[in-house]
Write a structure and sequence with these properties.
alpha/beta; 8-stranded parallel beta barrel; 10 helices; globular
């Protein structure tokens, strides 16, 4: 498998159980650096102050390529989110999930798109890039289009990027590579995790290369779409129950070693 030409980050949601305090954050970031990650996408820092998190990041030698922030806060007070991001030294944020939003009707999606656009304008004024991160729920069809298609069409690509997720695209019944190509020019960030099924046919998360996704096709599409960061995330089902080992397996596969 050919190597990806961009950079590779780890999503801290994968190791959320290890981030209870500053010591845990420092130790975990040190492990990720030794594995070969270039950066992390921030989430789940809890009570760790942004200034302390930034110091620990700097000491680890890892950048913060992006962050996930509270969905409701992004929409209701994007200025406060921008202040936090500046303190963290992070210039990119993603809307992680449409919590308390109606994405089951065209009217609900239209309302959400208006809120996303308003928040995106604030982030643009603060020099922060903004993206929408999908799960499977946005792949429900609302007439002839999915909610995710509507979000793409009803937001300005200059203001709202698309942080697609390979697992959730597959879980939603669409071709991940085709959707990445569809988002060419607004897919700078891409969540990557594999998709497998157990003996009962239940879908499970998997390390990159340990599931059924076509990574040659996906990575080729990412390159053509202008993706700058592959962000490795595995929510659960880690081999051996070890999230750090899971991230090591995925990083090794993506490095082509």
């Amino acid at each position: 498998m050919g190597t990806f030409k961009g950079k590779i980050a780890a999503q801290l949601w994968t190791v959320r159980s290890l981030l209870g305090d500053e010591k845990g954050l420092a130790s975990t970031l040190g492990s990720l650096k030794s594995i070969g990650y270039d950066a992390v996408e921030l989430i789940g820092l809890g009570a760790i102050p942004p200034a302390s998190a930034r110091r620990i990041l700097d000491d680890s030698g890892l950048a913060a390529c992006s962050a996930h922030a509270d969905s409701q806060l992004i929409l209701s007070d994007p200025g406060s989110v921008a202040t936090m991001l500046h303190a963290l030294g992070c210039g990119s944020v993603a809307y992680p999930y449409p919590r308390n939003q109606d994405v089951s009707t065209p009217e609900g999606v239209q309302k959400l798109c208006g809120q996303l656009s308003s928040a995106a304008s604030v982030f643009r004024s603060e020099g922060i890039s903004f993206s929408y991160h999908n799960h499977g729920i946005e792949l429900q069809r609302l007439g002839e289009k999915t909610a995710l298609q509507m979000i793409m069409e009803q937001t300005d690509p200059r203001l709202v990027g698309m942080e697609l997720d390979t697992y959730w695209l597959q879980a939603g019944g669409v071709d991940p590579a085709a959707w990445i190509q569809r988002c060419k020019g607004r897919a700078a960030l891409l969540h990557v995790k594999d998709y497998r099924v157990n003996a009962e046919g239940k879908p499970l998360f998997a390390e990159i290369g340990e599931g059924n996704l076509d990574w040659e096709k996906i990575l080729s599409a990412a390159g053509k779409a202008g993706t700058r960061w592959l962000i490795v995330e595995q929510d659960d089902h880690w081999a051996g129950g070890d999230p750090v080992a899971s991230l090591r397996t995925s990083r090794k596969y993506l490095s082509g070693k």
